[in-house]
DNA sequence: AAAAAAT
């Protein structure tokens, strides 16, 4: 304690090691010497009626005790303080008979000498003062310090440290960021800012093409997530103070209530929509039809044609369709139609779309957003890895439709930020995945929170055992629609099962991935994704890893780079197996065979989308051959395992003859960092604060090169035998 | 068995 306080004192020159008492004495004397002297003089006059004269000789005589005691006593007091009167306890004792004083002295003085001084030096000032061994002058001195220590220094600590933190951190950030920018800006200014602008526009155009022609007013867009996300997020992130947005009295952006928009005043002019538009025939609102027609969506996919009428009729629908078959619109349009009328209360959304991964949530959100807009339906992406504030605020403002991953939505419900009691229509996308063991509890939890009489739509590429449980529990008289699995996908998709030698796995993977066009390489584990991506880059193939162990910012960035073509090869775990839609993925390489036939179908579904062509190549180690054959049968895939070595004709055929350069490549530089974080430029948010120091980890170009070179031999060696 | 999903 004592030492601690000492350390916090202002240091003056004499106190080099902080231990010496002299500076402290000096300090006290400097501060209060005059006062203390005056006070003592007064006290002396008042409290020393006897007016005893004190000097050594007189005291010795008066006490008359044996020198060993009396002298010690007097030494500790009067020798230091010449001619001070003895008062209080000592004064009484001074007048007592000598015999009375002796036992006291025998007990106390040795204790004083042995114990007190050391104790005083360390921590024991209160005891020292309590015993009142000393005379008044010494007591006041020592009494002062504890008081000072107790009262002043704690206060000093409380006040100072917060102040220190507030001042210091901004200073740190200010110092740090300029340094960071100084290094990076020259690089970014030349290369990345132009790239960034181009990329950004390309991206926004990419996902929802319609946004460009969106009829939403500019200022509406300005009020949209992107700018305000950045403005809001950074302060909140820095403060790490959630109370600010939890508070209800926090000013909300001015915005008319959603339901008061002039929904009925919008022109019903269908513009260039053909009179025989099939969506209109299905009962889709003219505004939606028009909006989709603007994007060239005029003919419903089979799954849409099958499910939309029933869904519009309010029935529970069980939809089965291959990924890429248009399920999103299949449930999205009826959902929007339903939510277009009615009123949403604060925190009580009326629609909920559950999806298994964040990427999928973003994708669905982007696909539905322009359509929701023309219907004046508000929607909000509720997913992990994104900042809470905007999600909570949107809920409080009242949002019609949530597109959510289960974890975050449950979290928000537990916080009281969301109440699913008003959900009229609940959608489960990728239901078979949502019914996996790990997801099941979350899904049932959420569905349990919705009113049982609400409409439920369940969409999935595969409908099997697990889904049944959900269907039986939560769907009433569901209408099942299966678009035939045998449609477009199979005819435009080739399947190859390559039996390879373990030592060739790495080079064959690189050979396959070095082809022109986008390629997804699936691996079994996160670590494997990092490792294979690194190996591919080492061999000259621009590849990036995507898996759930990356920060959300890294995930977004990697996906963006894959979409914009700067990274043509994505090495992914099964996080990307389902639902992720990227155009023109011409080849899916399964560097590790899937665990089960469903996974095979999902992975394969990443290619040959929307009627395009695609190939699925599965690399099999000899011992994986039999299992894969069984799996292919279950999946309805007709393919014979073929032994392949590097350079074989089949390889050339699959890759178009391109070979990896053999020269290591580096990932493209991250997008320019806005406000120093995340960097993705994706509107949803950029990071999940969980994996180490985010700023550092997600900004460097070595970002996804995860596993170390030393691991690379394991990929080709025996380590590949996983089953 | 892995991965995903909340901090």
Describe, in plain words, how this protein is organized in 3D.
The protein is an alpha/beta fold. It folds into three domains: 150 residues, no CATH class; 276 residues, Rossmann fold, CATH 3.40.50; 230 residues, Rossmann fold. Helices cover 50% and strands 9% of the residues. The chain has 30 helices and 14 strands. Helix 26 links the parallel strand 12 and strand 13. It is globular, with a radius of gyration of 38 Å. The protein binds one DNA strand of 7 nucleotides through helix 18.
Features:
disordered N terminus; Rossmann fold; 30 helices; nucleic acid binding; 3 domains; Helicase_C-like; hydrolase activity; seven-stranded parallel β-sheet; DNA-binding; 9% strand; Helicase_ATP-bd; 723 residues; disordered C terminus; alpha/beta
Short note summarizing the structure:
With 723 residues, this protein is α/β, with parallel strands linked by helices.
- Overall 3D shape: globular
Sheet with the most strands? 7 strands, parallel
Beta strand count: 14
Overall pLDDT score: 65
Question: In percent, how helical is the residue content?
Answer: 40-55%
**Main sheet: which strands, in order across?**
3-4-2-5-6-1-7
Pick out the low-confidence regions: 1-82, 96-267, 673-723
SS field, number of helical segments: 30
| Percent of residues in β-strands | 5-15%
How would you name the CATH homologous superfamily of the largest domain? P-loop containing nucleotide triphosphate hydrolases
């Amino acid at each position: 304690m004592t030492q601690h306080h000492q350390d916090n004192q202002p240091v003056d020159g004499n106190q080099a090691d902080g231990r010496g008492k002299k500076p402290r004495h000096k300090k006290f004397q400097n501060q209060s010497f005059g006062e203390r002297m005056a006070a003592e003089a007064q006290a002396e006059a008042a409290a020393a009626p006897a007016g005893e004269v004190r000097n050594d000789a007189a005291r010795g005589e008066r006490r008359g005790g044996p020198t060993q005691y009396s002298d010690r006593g007097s030494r500790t007091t009067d020798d230091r303080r010449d001619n001070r009167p003895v008062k209080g306890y000592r004064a009484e004792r001074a007048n007592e008979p000598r015999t009375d004083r002796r036992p006291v002295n025998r007990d106390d003085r040795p204790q004083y000498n042995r114990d007190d001084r050391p104790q005083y030096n360390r921590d024991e000032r209160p005891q020292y003062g309590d015993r009142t061994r000393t005379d008044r002058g010494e007591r006041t001195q020592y009494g002062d310090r504890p008081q000072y220590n107790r009262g002043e220094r704690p206060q000093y600590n409380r006040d100072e440290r917060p102040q220190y933190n507030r001042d210091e951190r901004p200073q740190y950030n200010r110092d740090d960021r300029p340094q960071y920018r100084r290094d990076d800006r020259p690089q970014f200014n030349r290369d990345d800012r132009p790239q960034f602008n181009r990329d950004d526009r390309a991206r926004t155009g990419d996902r929802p093409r319609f946004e460009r022609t969106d009829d939403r007013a500019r200022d509406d867009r300005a009020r949209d997530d992107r700018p305000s996300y950045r403005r809001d997020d950074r302060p909140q992130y820095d403060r790490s103070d959630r109370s600010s947005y939890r508070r209800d009295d926090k000013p909300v952006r001015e915005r008319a209530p959603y339901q008061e928009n002039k929904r009925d005043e919008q022109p019903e002019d269908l513009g260039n929509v053909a009179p025989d538009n099939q969506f209109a025939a299905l009962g889709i609102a003219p505004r939606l039809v028009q909006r989709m027609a603007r994007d060239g969506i005029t003919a419903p996919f089979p799954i849409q044609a099958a499910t939309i009428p029933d869904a519009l009729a309010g029935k529970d629908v069980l939809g089965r369709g291959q990924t890429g078959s248009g399920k999103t619109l299949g449930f999205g349009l009826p959902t929007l139609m339903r939510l277009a009328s009615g009123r949403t209360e604060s925190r009580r959304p009326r629609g909920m779309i559950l999806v298994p991964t964040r990427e999928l949530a973003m994708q669905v959100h982007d696909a539905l957003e322009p359509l929701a807009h023309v219907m004046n339906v508000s929607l909000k992406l509720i997913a992990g890895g994104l900042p809470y504030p905007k999600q909570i605020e949107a809920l409080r403002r009242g949002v019609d439709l949530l597109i959510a991953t289960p974890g975050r939505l449950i979290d928000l419900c537990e916080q009281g930020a969301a109440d699913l009691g008003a959900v009229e229509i609940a959608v489960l996308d990728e239901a078979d995945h949502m019914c996996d063991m790990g997801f099941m509890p979350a899904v049932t939890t959420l569905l349990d929170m919705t009113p049982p009489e609400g409409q439920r739509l369940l969409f999935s590429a595969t409908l099997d055992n697990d889904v049944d449980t959900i269907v039986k529990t939560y769907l009433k008289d569901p209408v099942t629609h299966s678009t035939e699995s045998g449609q477009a996908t199979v005819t435009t998709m080739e399947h190859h099962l390559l039996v390879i030698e373990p030592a060739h796995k790495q080079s064959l993977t690189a050979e396959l991935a070095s082809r022109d066009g986008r390629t997804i390489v699936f691996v079994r584990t996160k670590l494997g994704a990092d490792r294979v991506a690194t190996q591919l880059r080492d061999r000259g193939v621009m590849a990036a890893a995507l898996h759930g162990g990356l920060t959300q910012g890294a995930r977004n960035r990697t996906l963006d780079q894959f979409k914009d073509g700067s990274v043509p090869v994505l090495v992914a775990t099964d996080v990307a197996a389902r639902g992720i839609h990227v155009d023109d993925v011409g080849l899916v390489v399964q560097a590790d065979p899937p665990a089960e036939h469903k996974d095979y179908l999902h992975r394969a579904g990443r290619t040959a989308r929307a009627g395009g062509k695609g190939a699925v190549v599965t690399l099999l180690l000899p011992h994986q051959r039999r299992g894969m054959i069984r799996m292919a049968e279950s999946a309805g895939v007709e393919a014979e395992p073929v032994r392949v070595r590097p350079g074989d004709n089949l390889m050339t055929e699959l890759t178009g003859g391109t070979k990896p350069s053999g020269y290591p490549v580096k990932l493209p530089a991250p997008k320019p960092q806005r406000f120093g974080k995340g960097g993705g430029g994706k509107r949803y948010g950029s990071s999940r604060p969980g994996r180490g120091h985010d700023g550092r980890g997600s900004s460097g170009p070595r970002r996804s090169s995860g596993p170390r070179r030393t691991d690379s031999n394991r990929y080709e060696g025996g380590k590949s035998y996983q089953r």
